Amino acid sequence: MVHPVLEAVTNDVIERSKKTREIYLGRIDEAMQKGPHRAVLGCGNLAHGFAACSMSEKADLAGDKKANIAIISSYNDMLSAHEPFKDFPAIIKKAATEAGGVAQFAGGVPAMCDGITQGQPGMELSLFSRDVIAMATAIGLSHNMFDAAMYLGVCDKIVPGLLIGALSFGHLPAVFVPAGPMPSGLPNKEKVRIRQLYAEGKVGREELLKAESESYHSPGTCTFYGTANSNQMMVEMMGLHLPGSSFINPNTPLRDALTKRATEQALKFTALGDDYRPIGHMIDEKAILNALVGLLATGGSTNHTIHLIAIARAAGIIINWDDFDRLSKIIPLVTRIYPNGTADVNHFQAAGGMGVLIRELSKNGLMHTDIITIGDEKGMEQYTKEPTLKDGTLTWEEGPEGSLDTDVIGSVAAPFATSGGLHLIKGNLGRGMSKISAVDPKHQVVEAPAMVFDHQDDVVEAFKRGEMNKDVIVVLRFQGPKSNGMPELHKLTPPLGVLQDKGFKVALVTDGRMSGASGKVPSAIHLCPECADGSILTKVRDGDMIRLDTQRGELNVLVDEEELNSRMACVLANTEHHYGMGRELFDSFRQGVSSAETGAINMFNVE
Q1: H, E, C per residue of 385-431
Q2: For [4Fe-4S] cluster, which residues are the binding ones (predicted)?
Q3: The model's pTM
């Protein structure tokens, strides 16, 4: 039995999405009816499409009986999370041939790292890179040569972009293939300690770089529970990863065996066979809400209060922040992964990982198990099992009944918090989101005077001058998608953490982002309307008292309404951030982007 609140939210989403979902399904069903797509290509088109193939592959592709898999990859060898993908195309092509199909590398998509661009001008391209990735995915698939697609991606904007692109080709089966996390390095708690010491000037750059390098040290995804690992969790909750495959380390026999099996599954689900599973039908309202439930239950990235909305809309499904808020009240926090605890994703995997999480949620009616997946068993049944190699053969065995480490994975009966880690924030400053899973309850309500800034560097400089050694709510304006692309603001985490450790009441209020690494300082982020659209935030002045109650979901500036209305709104005159580091190329994105609450969408309309 599904929990009545989850059932009610699901029904509301289905009803709300009725028109747009019908339009979307109509479009992909029309594409389905045309059959294997190479058959519609002219001889010249087809000859171009397989010119570089072997003679046997040309013979296979000339007909319409053997399936052709498109490989769309985010590989580059600078980013640790994507470096392992260098070997995947060869594995996929060999597996496809052995299984009676063909695979072609259809296209690459850009992959930028927020960890590298954090606090830098390039960070202002980050959010918009999601839409570029979606469009690049569509370009790779536009040759109309393919019967299914495999998507190789991991990090922040990459997986949402790949998903949006895949859903634009919703008539094709889709299999997502993770790279896996790097082995554990310097404990995250120690890394944060060094960062705060550096912010205070107590250690130098050499010590800081040593700590960072010991934390981020090898190929694979960063091990903290930020947007990248939240991506992997959500994709598995939607049934687009093989069961239990999200957090297997790269460059291991099990990782390679899972990539091979993923290829076999992609071939199995094409329209040429008798078990056709197009992604447009797989990703329905229930699958989207499974991802949302997983996000709440694990205290995942606040970025997905934007990305999941955009992904859903690409499938004709309309969700909103009220859905997050309603479900947050019934979904307990059942994991402790840094920054919500000291463990990393490797510890989570060792404690039972996704199998234990899915078993716990499903047995308590807190997720939908009757969705279409890329597994072999009905619904989500196989997703409580663990992949293993036995004498070189990949099999799935029943996973543990419960957590193997209750400090990392709890239970619905004994959660780490009774509600999900994300809360909707409302008040006279607008609507926003707050992640409180890593915030100590004693810091979850803050009332303090505002200090108003329009650039994150100004916050850091004020901290260094000692001007913030007091109770303070930092108001950082003009950080929304229309202003400057909505960069993440982790540059502020160490100084604000230092102030909190000194005993001051501290919070952040902004129309910008903080993402999955949001830590111990309470915040109200993604505020809508954003400042570029005339937010009341533009009328807040230094010294105004602000009250942020993340427990009740309330945010208000404590200024008389008549006084507030009489104030002139501040307008950001400095457009310096619109130029340099490629930012001038994204002017049309800034002008055309929707609000954070509607997914910060630029490039498509489901109606």
Answers
A1: EEEEEECCEEEEEECCCCCCCCCCECCCCCCCECCCCEEEEEECCEE
A2: 155, 222
A3: 0.94
